[in-house]
Structures are given as structure tokens and as C-alpha cells.
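User: Um, any thoughts?
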Amino acid sequence: MKANHNHLKVTIITVVFNGEDTIRDCIESVIGQSYPAIEYVIIDGKSTDKTPEIIANFGTKIDVFLSEKDNGIYDAMNKGIARSTGEIIGILNADDFYRDPFVIEKIVATLNATQADGVYGDLVYVDNKNTTKIKRYWKSGEFRRTQFLYGWMPPHPTFFLKRALYKRFGNYRTDLGSAADYELMLRMLYKWHVKIAYLPEVITIMRLGGVSNKAIGNRIQANHNDRAAWQRNGLKPYWFTLYLKPLRKVLQFVYKPK
């Protein structure tokens, strides 16, 4: 897919804390993108390992580098959004990396072709050490707003959104724990009907065992936070919505990407 660049600047935000084992792969997957208009923002939570040193080695290829204490991963993401100047914002965690050098080009091409306000795609989880070994495949499927009622959500590391919508509808809520990304996407797509487009291919690779996976074992707290995400927005799910949400993950172990 050839992009009509249309002068859209894309900001990629990476949040990291003590990520010396993975941050290099993450950064290289961003700075190696074919799309020319990328701003890269890295927010570090005052790492005590070699993370800041590794980041510093990339020099001016990193547009913004902030290292200071924060109040958690979503607070750090909000700091990144506040320092972003691109029209489009994507979040790539330090454990994750883009599948190939053409991801951002295809994201912008999809935005241009659909005139949407955001884009999402598919994601694979890989072994923490052997990143060629696929463990789970999150095939998102085409967006239908009512799917949220059946436990659906897009993979957050594949989610790109116009920066103007953060200004209009707000950033991440830092009091919802692991559900902060779910709440933001629910708020944007379900409550405010933001127009979103689906790029039907794997665009992001996530290591199992990263920050985003740590809450999976604590399903009771996660369910509580998911329920709060609906309540904070004055929305009412079906009685089964939040039970279906974790059950949908089971299929990710069955299907494999083509």
C-alpha cells in the first residue's frame, strides 16, 4: 500500500522503566520506519539500569527524551501526549516493536483512504526471549461499535488516534489501573463515536511478560476496573459484557496469523 503522505506528522510515544533488555529493539523498529514524518517521544520513569544510556546512544534520532519519576505507565503516556506535536499519536511500549519498516506508512495510507480519525490493526504475542515464536494472535476484525457490548476491544499497541481527539475528549485516566487503555478506547469509539479504520494485518509484536501482560492473572481486579470504565462514562454494558472480555482472549491461542 503506497501512502499519500499528505504532510501528516505521526508521533510515536514509548514509555519505559528499566527496559534495558528490550528498549533497543523497540527504538530500532521506530527509527527504521520508511515513513519520513515521524516524531519519536520516549518517557522514562527514571530507570536505574542502562536504559537511559541506551536511549542516549541514539542521539538526535529521538526527538523528545524525558527521564523523571511518574505515577505509573498511563501517567507517563499522558506526559508523552503533552509533549507531542504530530497530528497522529501511536503508543509503542518498550517491550513491543513494529512488525516491519512499512507500518507507519500503511497507517497513514489507511487514514488518508478512509478519512478516519484513527486506525488499529492486529497484534501477535511472542516468547519473551525468542521473538520468532508466536504464542497468541489477536485478530481484531472490522470495527462495529456494538462489539464493545460483547467484550471486544482493539489491541492498544496497534491503536493510532488524532492528537486533536485527546485534547477534545481527554487523556488516559490514571486511576483505573490496567483498564486505562480500555477506558480510553471505549470513551473514544463507543461513547463519542470517533471514526476508526481497521488495517487487517499484524502491525505490532508484543513480548509476553511485559508491562501490559502483568494484570492478566489478577482477573477480579481487572474486571472491577473494566466495570469502572463503563461507569465513569455513564455507560451501561450488558450483564455478560465484562465476562466475555477475558473469554475472547482464549481464541487468541487458537488462531495463527497467515
